[in-house]
């Protein structure tokens, strides 16, 4: 996984390192450093902050003694916020299962992510039920059913066009009846308008919470979509109380800086990253490991 990350994101780290290793860090160089960061979707404010810190530290500690790589590594890790709690809340209390609601726009990798999370939990000997509440697309339901077979967990589904909330309700009910550890609910991601989305997800959440608290709301974002992804993030966070972000398709994007931008925007940690289409291509996000992969 680390290799795959380094493959796609390495250009960012190498670009910064080579600029910082120049003999003279003049204004042109600092501008070039800013460009590299902005191109990687780090965002304007975090880019300025980072450049300011690098300038100060490399000036103060200056001369040959300071190692640009060490300073860059420390400041990048600080930027990614290593102290955020990134553990998934997959356990319930009082005999109810943990309930993970997975939200995001269609095509971001939501259904795939649900399957991958199920696989990780099953590997940890947890019992899992999946809810196919993306009832507007028959293909999404079929896709989740296939994941269920592959991973060996039950998938609760309804006929096409069923009310998503009723599928969500039934899946949590099955989770309670079968004493499952975790229920993961795949939701519809039609970003038709904010009011519609709010109605739909609000209802899903309400019917679930008649039976058990939602322990985690994961927002799935496609790392390749840049500013568009940031807009989606904003809309969803206004509609539901997002508790964690899954950044997919980092394998196909050189724009790892979005990790920083989206955490800043929502004040919520990136908890998982998607690094490919395969069943094992989902990894917990770790700030230091991420930065080390960048820097190669
Ligand atoms: P949904 O519409 O949001 O449920 O998205 P899907 O789960 O159907 O995924 C859309 C496409 O993205 C599929 O072809 C997935 O295989 C692909 N995909 C999902 N996650 C990743 C990832 O981390 N990396 C790559 N390269 N592809 C991914």
From TrEMBL:
GTP binds at residues 104-111, 186-190, 248-251. It catalyses: GTP + H2O = GDP + phosphate + H(+). Part of the signal recognition particle protein translocation system, which is composed of SRP and FtsY. The keyword Aminoacyl-tRNA synthetase does not apply. The gene is ftsY. Keywords: Cell membrane, Cytoplasm, GTP-binding, Hydrolase, Membrane, Nucleotide-binding, Receptor, Transmembrane, Transmembrane helix. This is Signal recognition particle receptor FtsY. Its EC number is 3.6.5.4. It is a peripheral membrane protein. Involved in targeting and insertion of nascent membrane proteins into the cytoplasmic membrane. Acts as a receptor for the complex formed by the signal recognition particle (SRP) and the ribosome-nascent chain (RNC). Signal peptide: none annotated. Residues 269-282 form the SRP54-type proteins GTP-binding domain. The lineage of its organism: Bacteria, Bacillati, Actinomycetota, Actinomycetes, Propionibacteriales. It is found in: Cell membrane; Cytoplasm. Belongs to the GTP-binding SRP family. FtsY subfamily. Its main location: membrane. It comes from Nocardioides koreensis.
């Amino acid at each position: 996984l680390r290799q795959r990350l380094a493959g796609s994101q390495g250009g960012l780290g190498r670009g910064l390192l080579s600029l910082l290793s120049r003999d003279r860090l003049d204004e042109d160089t600092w501008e070039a450093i800013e460009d590299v960061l902005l191109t990687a979707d780090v965002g304007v404010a975090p880019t300025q902050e980072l450049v300011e810190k690098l300038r100060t530290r490399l000036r103060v500690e200056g001369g040959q003694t300071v190692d640009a790589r060490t300073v860059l590594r420390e400041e990048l890790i600080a930027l990614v916020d290593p102290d955020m709690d990134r553990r998934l809340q997959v356990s319930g209390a009082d005999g109810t299962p943990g309930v993970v609601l997975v939200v995001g726009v269609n095509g971001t990798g939501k259904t795939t992510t649900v399957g991958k999370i199920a696989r990780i939990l099953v590997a940890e000997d947890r019992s899992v039920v999946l809810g196919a509440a993306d009832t507007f697309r028959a293909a999404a339901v079929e896709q989740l059913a296939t994941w269920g077979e592959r991973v060996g967990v039950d998938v609760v589904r309804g006929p096409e066009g069923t009310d998503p909330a009723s599928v969500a309700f039934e899946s949590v009910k099955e989770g309670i009846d079968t004493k499952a550890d975790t229920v993961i609910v795949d939701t519809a991601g039609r970003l038709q308008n904010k009011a519609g989305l709010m109605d739909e997800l609000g209802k899903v959440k309400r019917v679930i919470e008649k039976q058990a608290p939602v322990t985690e709301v994961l927002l799935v974002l496609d790392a390749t979509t840049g500013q568009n992804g940031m807009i989606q993030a904003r809309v969803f966070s206004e509609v539901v109380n997002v508790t964690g972000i899954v950044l997919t398709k980092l394998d196909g994007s050189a724009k790892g800086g979005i990790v920083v931008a989206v955490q800043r925007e929502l004040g919520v940690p990136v908890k998982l990253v998607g690094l490919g289409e395969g069943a094992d291509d989902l990894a917990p996000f770790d700030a230091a490991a991420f930065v080390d992969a960048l820097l190669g």
